[in-house]
Amino acid sequence: MTVDLKLFELVDSKTRKVSFSPAVWRAKFALNYKKITYESVPLTFLEIPTVITAACPNVISPTVPTLQLEPGNGLPDSFAIAEYIEEQYPDRPLLFGKNISEKNLQRFFESYVQSKIHPPIRRMVYNDMYSMQDEKNADYFRTSREKSSGQPHHLIAGDRNQNLRELKESLGLVHTALQSGDWILGPQPGWADFVLGASFMWFNSCSPNDFKEGILEAFDDQIMLNYWKKMQEYVY
Amino acid sequence: MTVDLKLFELVDSKTRKVSFSPAVWRAKFALNYKKITYESVPLTFLEIPTVITAACPNVISPTVPTLQLEPGNGLPDSFAIAEYIEEQYPDRPLLFGKNISEKNLQRFFESYVQSKIHPPIRRMVYNDMYSMQDEKNADYFRTSREKSSGQPHHLIAGDRNQNLRELKESLGLVHTALQSGDWILGPQPGWADFVLGASFMWFNSCSPNDFKEGILEAFDDQIMLNYWKKMQEYVY
C-alpha cells in the first residue's frame, strides 16, 4: 500500500495551526480510524487553488480536502476519499459497513447533519472564523460568505439565542440516537459518527465557548460530553 | 409457527373500513413484508380499551397496534411487534438487517419521520380524521387532540400552506435519499421504508387530495410517486 498520501487541509491564516474545516475533518477521521498514514499539507483559503492545482493538476476545481494519491494525482471530496480508502483498505475497520442499506442510511444521516446541524453552527462560528484570518483571507472569506448567504457581513451571524435554539432542536434526534449506544452506529463508530464529529471539531476549533454551551451542555446529561471524549481517540 | 395471530387495528367509526393509524400500518407492513398470516380485528377509538383488555389481559395500557400472539396474550407497540416477528421469522426477509448499526440507523430514520414528517401531516389530516368519526368517537378524538396539542379544535389544523411548506422541507432529505435507490435502504425495503410508508398510508387514507399535493407532487419528478407505487405491494 502506498505511504505517500498527502492530505491538503484548510488552516487559519493567522497562526496556520487550526484545522477547522468540517469537510477536512471527515477525511481525517476516516483516515485516522483506519490508521492510514498521511502527510498533512496545511493551506489557507487563498492558497488552495494554486497549491492544489500545482500538486494535483488532475483536480479541476481545487477544494479541501484533497488527498494526493501519488505525485500529480489528487482525489478531492471527503466522501470520495472515504469510499476510496474503504476500497483500498478493506482489512481495516469499515466506515460504511458491509451492506448498501447501511451505507445509504449513513448518507441519510450525513444529509441530516448537513442540512439541520451545519446551518446554526455556520452562523455561530462566522465571526470567529473571520477573526482567525489575515487581512487578505478575511476579505476572501467575507466576500464569499456574503455571496453564499445572501446577507451582508454584520447580519450573517444572526441571533445567538435563536441559533442555539435551532441547534438544540436539531441535536435532539442525535441525542436520542446516542442513548442506545456509544456511537450513532452502536458499539463501533463509522462514517455517520465522523460526519457529526467533524462538525463538532469545526465548531470547537472556531468557537469553543459556544461549542461547550451549544453541544456539550445542550442536554441535562453527560451523553454529548461522553461522545465527544470518545471521539478524541481519532483526533490527530 | 403459530397461525392464530390477531392484529388489533384502528378504523374510522363511520364506515369501519378505513385503517388509518400510522402505528398500525408499520406493523401491517412488517407482517406483510414477511408474509405472515394474521387476522385483522378492526376497532374504533372507543373500543380499543375494552376489546383489547378483554382479549389480552396482559396489556396494561391498551393501544393499537396490538398483536395477539395467542389467546389472552397480546404484544402492543409497532416496534416491539417488528422486533418480535424479526426474531420469530429469521428465515423471512429482514426488517432491520443483520447489524446493530443498521438497526440503529433505521431507528434514527424513524425518529426523523416521527419528529419532522408527522407533525405537518397530523395537522393536515385533523379535520378529515374528525369527520370520519361518529359522534362519540369524534368527541373523544377532539378532546384528546385538544389536550395533546394544547390548542382548541378550530386551530389544530393550522395554516394549510404553512403545513405544506413544512412537509416539503422535511421531505427533502427523503427525496434525496430515494434518488440513490428504489427504497430508502436501497434495492430492498426494510423498517425505515415501512415507517415512512405508514405515514403515507395515514395521510392518504384521511386526506387523499392533500396527500397527492403534499407528497406525490411535492417535487418535479416521479420519485415519490414511483416509491408510493412500489409500496403498494405490501398494502393489504
TrEMBL record, chains A, B:
SUPFAM superfamilies tied to this protein: GST C-terminal domain-like (SSF47616), Thioredoxin-like (SSF52833)
Domain GST N-terminal: 11-93
A Pfam entry, by short name: GST_N_3
CC terms in the record's Gene Ontology section: cytoplasm
Top-level taxon of origin: Eukaryota
Name of the protein this chain belongs to: GST N-terminal domain-containing protein
Lineage of origin: Eukaryota, Fungi, Fungi incertae sedis, Mucoromycota, Mortierellomycotina
